[in-house]
């Protein structure tokens, strides 16, 4: 998406060079976001990191798509780079807590192919729809809103699982003390 928006909106004659700068901005902010995410992991639950990260990343992608200038686009990409590692830290820390060790390899073995399938389907949809039916701004909007919607969905669903887990833990502790 950054290459398309650079080529067709912001920098048609220098989009290759600008794409390098976006890579630098994104890479640096992902590194900073990883440090920030590690600090936040001590203050927030892993589930909340996933939720917050998805919503912030989604908002950043939408804002990037509708940015009126290349500087603002770079800023939104940087914001997204800060928020994305928060999701990965949340998932990476929470995943071993919810998946049995015996099943970890099998579950991980399913995640990567499913992930690649949806990447391919998304790229195929973009190839079919862009630019005839969708502008690049709306592709950003669809991707960003999808991320934010998943974050809101998780905000509704995940606390139920946290409550179930804490109830089980309390029951186990009561059983041990009796």
Helices, strands, pairings?
Layout: H1 2-10, H2 15-41, H3 46-65, H4 70-98, H5 104-129, H6 136-177
Helix pairs in contact: 1-2, 2-4, 3-4, 3-6
Summarize the structure.
This protein is mostly helical and 178 residues long. The protein has 6 helices and no strands.
Which properties best describe this structure?
178 residues; mainly alpha; Growth Hormone, Chain: A; 6 helices; 0% strand; globular
Summarize the structure in words.
The chain is an all-alpha fold and 178 residues long. The chain has one domain: MFS general substrate transporter like domains (Growth Hormone, Chain: A, Up-down Bundle), CATH 1.20.1250. It is 86% helix and 0% strand. The chain has six helices and no strands. The N and C termini lie far apart (59 Å). The C terminus is likely disordered.
Rg computed from alpha carbons, rounded to a whole number of angstroms: 19 Å
Decide which structural class fits the backbone. mainly alpha
Reading the helices and strands in chain order gives HHHHHH
What overall geometry do the principal axes of the alpha carbons give? globular
Biggest sheet, open or closed, and with what strands and sense? none
